[in-house]
Write a sequence for this structure.
């Protein structure tokens, strides 16, 4: 008899439908929340990616129109070409003047293969102006995230107004992480989250934009 009562009770419990709607609602609302948060986070990541890319493009656009960070590329920064024996009008291709590269960060400029007398003095005002234009598009850009590179690839001529060499100018943006709304809050709370390399944000890939130098004078830049 006891077994019969148990079986009867189990059958009754199996037929019971009270609370089914609440369980279904809990499942559905959970899925909807995950879907909504995913859409928001993905849209935010896409916006940050696009902003970082556009800020890099604007940075190089401004860099080729403004005073160079490396003083040697300014119109008065280096007369070593003419002093070295080149007649005005001489093409400065790489067979005449070897290729070289100057890389500037927020504190200094370093050169690989620079000719004698070329100044790598760092113009902090010029660098800050580039960063300010970039941060106007993507507010999270910091000076430490930006590299400005000038490369002599064979363009220019001795005695050219505004500077003998026409460098290729590259602006690089790196070290920036995605800033999420919910994921940034949840990640450190996950098992081992604080020890993960992404606990302080998921890094963006580096962004790079390159243009040939133009007037290289801030007076005409905007």
């Amino acid at each position: 008899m006891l077994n019969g009562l148990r079986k009867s009770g189990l059958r009754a419990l199996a037929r019971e439908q009270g609370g089914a709607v609440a369980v279904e609602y809990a499942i559905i609302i959970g899925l909807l929340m995950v879907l909504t948060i995913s859409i928001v986070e993905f849209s935010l990541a896409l916006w940050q990616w696009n902003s970082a890319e556009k800020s890099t493009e604007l940075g190089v656009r401004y860099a080729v129109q403004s005073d160079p960070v490396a003083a040697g590329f300014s119109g008065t920064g280096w007369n070593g070409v003419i002093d070295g024996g080149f007649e005005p009008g001489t093409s400065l291709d790489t067979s005449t003047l070897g290729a070289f590269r100057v890389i500037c960060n927020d504190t200094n400029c370093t050169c690989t293969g620079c000719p004698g007398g070329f100044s790598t003095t760092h113009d902090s005002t010029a660098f800050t102006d580039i960063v300010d234009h970039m941060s106007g598009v993507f507010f999270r850009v910091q000076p430490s995230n930006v590299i400005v590179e000038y490369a002599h690839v064979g363009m220019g001529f001795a005695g050219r107004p505004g500077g003998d060499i026409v460098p290729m100018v590259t602006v690089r943006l790196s070290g920036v992480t995605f800033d999420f709304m919910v994921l940034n809050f949840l990640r450190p709370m996950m098992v081992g989250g604080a020890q993960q390399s992404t606990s302080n944000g998921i890094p963006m890939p580096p962004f790079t934009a390159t243009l040939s130098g133009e007037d290289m004078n801030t007076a005409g830049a905007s």
Q: What stands out?
A: The chain is about 35% helix and 15% strand. The chain has one domain: 2-220. The longest strand covers residues 146-152.
